[in-house]
Design goal:
mainly alpha, Arc Repressor Mutant, subunit A, three-stranded antiparallel beta sheet, 8 helices
């Protein structure tokens, strides 16, 4: 996710201080991965430079207490970003595939590699399932997204394990 667009979207609700934006970001999107203050202020500086936000000061506030507000250009930018579909992530050359082929090329046990990876995926799925059951709706949706991706990886691991002899033969043929 683009932090800049998220901050712009949060600013559409009204002007805010950087620390308020960080807290809102962490509450809404940071689940398990909060922003660092430095990233918030660096992003705000870039948005300010690009004319997407402006600084609004209030009487009695010190110079280090800037309130940021989205500009019309910022609103337009967020609208365009929201309307644009995300590119589906296609993993045609994944790390897992590379590891399997390298294991085969170097006469290592690719089946063991697949078993270890399967166990790691299942462990991650258990953690996400516990988090999902204990979480609010946002946690449930985030965990569902991750779980579906892990399930797809598991299906690939099973299919690859079933085709390992064929892949081994093909890899050996191609290296001759």
């Amino acid at each position: 996710m683009s932090v800049g667009y998220a901050l712009l979207g949060l600013l559409e609700r009204g002007p805010r201080h950087g620390y308020d934006l960080k807290r809102s970001y962490d509450d809404q999107f940071g689940r398990g991965r909060s922003l660092h203050y430095g990233q918030v202020y660096a992003t705000l500086a870039r948005l300010l430079k690009n004319g997407l936000v402006e600084v609004r000061s209030e009487p009695g506030e010190g110079p280090d207490r800037k309130r940021y507000a989205i500009t019309e250009a910022g609103v337009t930018d967020v609208e365009h970003w929201l309307a644009r579909p995300e590119q589906p992530e296609v993993y045609l050359q994944s790390k897992l595939y590379t590891k399997v082929v390298l294991a085969l090329l170097t006469d290592r046990d690719a089946a063991d590699l697949l078993d270890v990876q399967r166990a790691a995926h299942l462990g991650q799925m258990r953690e996400l399932t516990h988090r999902k059951l204990a979480g609010d709706l946002a946690d449930q949706l985030v965990c569902d997204h991750a779980l579906f991706h892990l399930e797809a990886d598991l299906r690939w691991l099973e299919l690859t394990a079933a085709r390992l002899d064929q892949l081994r033969a093909q890899v050996r043929e191609e290296t001759r």
